[in-house]
Every structure is written in structure tokens, then in C-alpha cells.
């Protein structure tokens, strides 16, 4: 029989694997799907972990570094405020309607948002003092670490009790909780700009995840991303050194 008539097995194509294959796939997909929430959580954890050390290293008379740390803290608190407003005015009402069994938890989370906002306001006053007086940096650094521990409890409750339920309540095509929705809400609220928000949110995120998230954003955001990231790194490297990721 001519060789060209013999049955030929289809070529073997190696399966493309997620470079983070050790993570649970469902959990990863949920975090990417609701990146408008999970990225804020990760960024808050990251900065509340490294800001205390940066404060402790602040040298007397270093006004430039002190002002840079103050600006970064102010940006962090602005993002936190927008995050809480997004949840309280946009997300929680939807969940109360479509997942009424969560109402008591949502009420507690909303009340805790107000408590956290007050705590951050108090620490903001301390940070302003510390960035002008290097002699007070250590006590303020401890105050930030205490605040980070307080916030961690809140974030874990949202991630462990709400995210799985949200994945069942909202359709996969829904924009609720997505990164594009967060960027739209920031624009509508005159919050931090897209460039600043994107670079802050994606600081330290692996390249595979960044590309997946950029694919969901508008073309302008994706096109300007390399320039935004380079500018952000140039501005923040003096605070805690170049990224090692």
C-alpha cells in the first residue's frame, strides 16, 4: 500500500501548562476573575510589609526620602478608601440581593471598613510625624505592623468566605469585581489615575498573570503599560530597592 495511504497518527502537541501549576486551578481562576479585589488585597499586604522597614531606615535630615514615603502612604490610603467604597456601594448591595444568606457577614464587613478607615487615619497622622522626624520612625513602624495584622483578618474573611460565593453568584462574563471595573470606578470617583493604579496593583506580580490581566483591559492601557511600569519602578526603587522578582 502506498505510504501516503497508511493511517497516520495526529502529531502530538504538548499541553501548555500554567507556570504556577502547583497552585489550585480553581482558586487561581477565581483570583484572576475578581482581580479588582484580590490585587488590592495583595498590594496592601505588600506595602504594609515593606513600609515599616523603609521607615526604620529613614535617616535624619533625609527630606526627599521622607516625602517619598509620605506620598506612597497617601496613595495607599487613597486606594484603600476607593476599595472600600467600591465594596460598600457596588458589590455588597449586589451580594445582599443575590446571596441574602451573606447579609450579616456583609453588614459586619461594612462596619469594619469604617473602623479600618479610622485606624488608617490615625496612623496617617503618625506617618506624617515620622517622615519629618526620623527619631519617631520605630514606634510608627510598629504601629503600621499592628495595623497590617488588623487588616489581615479582614482580608482573609473576604477571600475565604466571599470570593467562593461570588464565583457562584456572578456569571463568568460579569464585570463585577474585575480589574477593568475597578479602573472605571476609580475614574468615575476621581480617584488615583489608571497609570498609578495599574503599576501599584501589578508591582511584584508575575509576568504570566500580568499579560492575562492586560488582555482584559482596553488597548490604551495595554499599549502604555511598559512605559508606566518603567516610570513606576524608577520612582519607587529608591524607597525599597529594585525588584528581585
From TrEMBL:
This is Hemerythrin-like domain-containing protein. Coiled coil: none annotated. Residues 37-165 form the Hemerythrin-like domain. Residues 1-28 are annotated as: Disordered. InterPro entries: Hemerythrin-like. Residues 18-28 have a biased composition (Basic and acidic residues). Pfam families: Hemerythrin (PF01814).
Amino acid at each position: 500500500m502506498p505510504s501516503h495511504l497508511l493511517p497516520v497518527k495526529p502529531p502530538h502537541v504538548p499541553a501548555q501548562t500554567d507556570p504556577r501549576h502547583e497552585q489550585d486551578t480553581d482558586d487561581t481562576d477565581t483570583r484572576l476573575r475578581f482581580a479588582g479585589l484580590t490585587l488590592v488585597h495583595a498590594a496592601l499586604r505588600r506595602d504594609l510589609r515593606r513600609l515599616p522597614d523603609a521607615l526604620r531606615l529613614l535617616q535624619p535630615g533625609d527630606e526627599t526620602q521622607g516625602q517619598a514615603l509620605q506620598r506612597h502612604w497617601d496613595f495607599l490610603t487613597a486606594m484603600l478608601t476607593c476599595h472600600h467604597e467600591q465594596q460598600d456601594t457596588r458589590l455588597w448591595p449586589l451580594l445582599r440581593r443575590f446571596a441574602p444568606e451573606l447579609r450579616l457577614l456583609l453588614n459586619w464587613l461594612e462596619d469594619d471598613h469604617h473602623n479600618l478607615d479610622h485606624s488608617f487615619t490615625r496612623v496617617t497622622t503618625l506617618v506624617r510625624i515620622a517622615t519629618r522626624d526620623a527619631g519617631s520612625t520605630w514606634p510608627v513602624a510598629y504601629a503600621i505592623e499592628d495595623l497590617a495584622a488588623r487588616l489581615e483578618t479582614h482580608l482573609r474573611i473576604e477571600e475565604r468566605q466571599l470570593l467562593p460565593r461570588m464565583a457562584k453568584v456572578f456569571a463568568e462574563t460579569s464585570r463585577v469585581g474585575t480589574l477593568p471595573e475597578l479602573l472605571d470606578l476609580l475614574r468615575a470617583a476621581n480617584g488615583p489615575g489608571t497609570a498609578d493604579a495599574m503599576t501599584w496593583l501589578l508591582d511584584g506580580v508575575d509576568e504570566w498573570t500580568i499579560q492575562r490581566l492586560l488582555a482584559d483591559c482596553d488597548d490604551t492601557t495595554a499599549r502604555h503599560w511598559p512605559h508606566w511600569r518603567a516610570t513606576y519602578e524608577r520612582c519607587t526603587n529608591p524607597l525599597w530597592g529594585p525588584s528581585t522578582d
